[in-house]
Each structure stands twice: as structure tokens, then as C-alpha cells.
Amino acid sequence: MVKAPRHILAAISDEPSALHGVRFISRFLRVTDDIAVTLLFVVPKPPDVENPGRFLTSSLARGKFSLDQAARLLVEAGFPSESVEQKNLFARRSKPAELAAEAVRGLYDAVVLGRRGHAWLMDLVEGSVSSDIVDTGLRVPVWIARMPGEDRTGVLACLDDSEQAFGMVDHVGFLLARESQPITLFSVLDPGHEDHARADALFKRAVGMLEQHGVGVERIHTKTVASANPAKAILAEAADGHYAAVGVGRTGENKGTLFMGSVSTTLLKELTGAALLVHQ
């Protein structure tokens, strides 16, 4: 396994035309001398057919083509070829569960999902597939790049007083310390009780975390808005600010779905252009 100070696991599907997660990585992370990317293709379980070997051979061939395309995209973007690893994993459970297990087993700093990964998560949110990925314990930050837009920059880091939100800020500081991306700390205030002192306290703590990672103060911005609908306010700011990513903390107790918080769920369903970062 390749290793580096920043190690990312990128899930690859057998659709080489839909490498949205890898495209996001190539545009978003420009300092590449301390990053390793493991490209993971989960080979599906063969169906109950007479010749499962033929099915597996075909799946491996399609996966190899997608893995090669993804690796080429990263190398062309400036990632050293020796820092890009291709990996096949034969599924014994659902694909999301295998991905979750690999993320924990490999001690990755982040998981990046594209369009297919977004579909997996939507199935989990809506309860239409098994919650294996939750039970396995996917506790690394997840970046979901369903339809990443070009020429976007910066992270909109959405704050509340949950530890998950500050975990998200800590991850952003770690991942982007050597990058040039601006980071906007964003707080949605209750219009009936605009507690600016509370927002200032949240910002102070978050700024301190970012500075501990070496993020320059010139890259850190703060913004508050008043809204009774936090998800709608975040979506509006994400569109207006043309951010590359929106970060939130997952809140709520795990009761069998991946995202219990209504804000996270709404963003997962409706955010386009920007990637969504969810910290568990």
C-alpha cells in the first residue's frame, strides 16, 4: 500500500465516463507531493449463474479499464504515478459495506465518492438497501462529488456546536493546510434570536483549529446569515459563492441510516456543483 501524509481512498465504478470523484480530487488538491491516492474497485459478488468465473473475469476487465482511466487522469493532473495505487476488492457483502471496511482497515484520511457512491448513499438514506456500511463503522470523512463543477474554489465549512462539525473543520484544516483554497466558516442564525456572540465563539474555536494546522489567517473568512431553514441557506450560499465543496458534521444518533441530520440529508439530495463533505 502506498502511504503519504495525506492518503485518500477513491471509489471507482465500472463506468469510466463517470469518474466524478477522481475529477474532483484532480481539481481540488493541487499540492501533490505529499498525497497518496488509492483507487478502489469493488468487484461485485457474482449472481447465481452457471459460470460465475466468466462474470468475475468480465467485471475485473471493466474495473481495470476504469482504474487505468482514473490513474491516468490523476497523473495528467500532476500526481506522481508512484503515489497512485490501483486496488481490486472482491465483495463478500454489499459494495458499500466493503468500501466502509476498507476505509477503516487502511487508515485512510478521507473517502471520495463519485456519482455511483452518491447513489449508494441515497439508497441508504431512503432505506432501500442494507445499512451494512453504517454497521461496519465508516468513521472517516466522506467527500461526495456527484456532479463537481469546474472553476470552483474554496470550502464552505458550516458550523454548529456539534463535535462532528468541529471534526469537519479539523479535517479541512489538515487536508488543505498546504493548499491555497480559501475556507469560509458559515453559521446560520435563528432569525428569532440572532445570537452573534455564540456564532463568534464558534468562529473563534474553528479559526484556532485551522491555524493549528498552518492555515494562514488570510485564507480564513467568516459569514453569518439568519434563516429558519439552515439547509436552504447553505444551498443558497454554496451557489452564490461558487464553492468547490460544502462541509458539514453529521448529527443525530445512528438508527440504521447513514445521515440522520435533516441538513445533511437535504444537502446530499440537492447540492450540485460543489462536493459535499460529511464528517461522521
UniProtKB/TrEMBL annotation:
Residues 6-144, 155-278 form the UspA domain. SUPFAM superfamilies: Adenine nucleotide alpha hydrolases-like. CDD domains: USP-like. Pfam families: Usp. It comes from the Bacteria. Belongs to the universal stress protein A family. This is Universal stress protein.
